[in-house]
Amino acid sequence: MLEMRPDCEKCGRDLPADVHGAFICSMECTFCANCADRMDERCPNCGGDLLDRPLREGAILAKYPGSTLRKYRV
Predict the structure, then answer these.
(1) Strands annotated E in the chain
(2) Which among 29, 4, 26, 30 has a CA at the least distance from the CA of 17?
(3) Which strands make up the sheet holding 51-52, listed edge to edge?
(4) 1-64: CATH number
(5) pTM of this prediction?
């Protein structure tokens, strides 16, 4: 199951699990759409492709909430 990280690792923008706009690589590095575009959809951590993260909504989100551990480093 995806961790559904709550923020962009590059700029810190909030990325709720039930809202479009998050991009992830196969290692679950997570970035907002703006940062992913600036990096040409390539993960700076592992070099993998950044793809649209699927949504988690409704009862599934309630049962399996996204992570609260933020990855953005100031």
Answers:
(1) 22-24, 30-32, 51-52
(2) 4
(3) 30-32, 22-24, 51-52
(4) 3.30.40
(5) 0.91
